[in-house]
Amino acid sequence: MSTAQRISLSRYLIEQQREHGHISAELRLLIEVVARACKHIAVSVNKGALGEVLGTAGSANIQGEVQKKLDVIANEVLIEANEWGGHLAGMASEEMDTIHVVPNRYPQGEYMLLFDPLDGSSNIDINVSIGTIFSVLRKVGHARGVSEADFLQPGKAQAAAGYCVYGPQTTLVLTVGDGVSVFTLDRELGSWILTAENVQIPPATQEFAINMSNMRHWDEPTRRYIHDCLAGADGPRGKDFNMRWVASMVADVHRILTRGGVFLYPWDTRDPTRPGKLRLMYEANPMGFIVEQAGGLASTGTQRILDIVPTELHQRVPVVLGSRDEVEAVMRYHDQAQG
Ligand code: P6P
Fold this sequence. Notes:
EC 3.1.3.11, 30% helix, hydrolase
């Protein structure tokens, strides 16, 4: 790629703001700050054993999950990077029980940032791709201050969403509601360089991503759908399927964004009060926004994820997302079960 063709994230955002009026100066600043924080997290991730960042932090989060050192580091990096800039009113994170309100010593902005600072952290110590997922909402009202209730907006209200994959390449994927763009980190310059625009997920696929070890716990429609995929070309689906499961949502979603596929983390019977494993506000909603902006679908199996009106900050939701035709196929299995 010649220097003349290299478009930096900053130039891309300025052109989005100037030419398309799609983002405000404040949202541009927010995205640039988050992207810079992701570079900082990437440096820590890439150090691995050399940086004394592996292993557990000796604490648990509100999800009851043991926190890895890098979970805590990534969370602190995002909080510290974003609280002084004047672009945010508050933040919410998988790693924090409740919201973090911008301290009074700093100006407050019109946006709210939600994130899973380091998703897939069970993969950290085995050197498999992990990532940061973020979602941006607009603050309701203009009085200073923000409450947890202000965060409980449906995913279709998002102003922006993105994720960063810390993998063989360090890749930032972003949507501000005008398609999906991909930026690759140039480590020598420390710059995010635009490497793909208007990404489209192929509507059809022969690849599904699910944790097969949970099969006995799934609801009937999911079991029948996967059974029929495994039956291959001679079965009801009329084609053979391949399977992938990285157990890192950002890695699985990035593969689907790149070559198509369907990702499922369905409801299961282990805890009927828990409608799935993945969290709505900072996993399903941002990934759902990105997938829809790339021509795919994001559903619970029966409902569009971005239409869900949240009731709790850390609520969970069943997730089926990816190639449009295949998500619609899963939804048909659920429709048939409902009669
Ligand atoms: P399981 C990571 O912990 C995560 O939240 C997602 O990134 C991933 O898709 C899923 O959980 C993996 O869950 O049950 O297969 O370990």
